Structure formats: C-alpha cells, structure tokens
Amino acid sequence: MTPRPLRAVALVCTLKTSGTESSSEKLAGEVLLELARHEVVGQAFRVADYDVRPGVAVDEGHGDEWPILRRHIVDSDIVILATTCNRR
C-alpha cells in the first residue's frame, strides 16, 4: 500500500478579502510551493473570506464558518499561519 502524501494547510490571516493583493497570501503560496517540491499537498485559505465568530467552542453557532477551516486543520499534517507584520 502506498502511503498518502503529507498534507499542509495555510491559514492566511490578512485583513483583506480575496481579490486584493496580500503579502501574507504571497508568503503562504511560496511556502506551499516549496513543500510541493517535497511531495506535500497543500491548500491556502484566507480567513477574512470566512465568517469566523469569536469564542472558544468548536462551533459558535449559526453562521460560524470556523468548523470549515478547523476540518482542514485537523486533516492536515502541517499547519502554516501567515500573518502580517506591521513594523513602525
């Protein structure tokens, strides 16, 4: 039996929704490309595109889209967190 490839998920934590250029998304993409060279299957998600409710529960109720992202995290071997760095 062939082992399954490692899986990676990148959470892009920019404040900008999709369609807007993001350095965090570019960074996550570069990391995923490098991992792909090592046969790691990866996918990036822009957290700002999801309705993630505040709280500590796995699901904060109607409309909370955190469970969608959480499922990708749980199913992955590697989690990448790409954030902005605002140095002033």
Describe this entry's structure for a reader:
- The chain is α/β, with parallel strands linked by helices.
- Helix content is 26%, strand content 22%.
- It is built from two helices and three strands.
- It has helices at residues 23-36, 66-74, and strands at residues 7-13, 41-46, 78-83.
- The chain has a three-stranded parallel sheet with strand order 2-1-3, sandwiched between helices.
- The protein is flat and about 40 Å long.
- The N and C termini lie far apart (53 Å).
- The mean pLDDT is 93.
Task: Describe the SSE topology.
Blueprint: E1 7-13, H1 23-36, E2 41-46, H2 66-74, E3 78-83
Parallel strand pairs: 1-2, 1-3
Keywords:
alpha/beta; 26% helix; 2 helices; 3-stranded parallel β-sheet; 88 residues; single chain; 3 strands
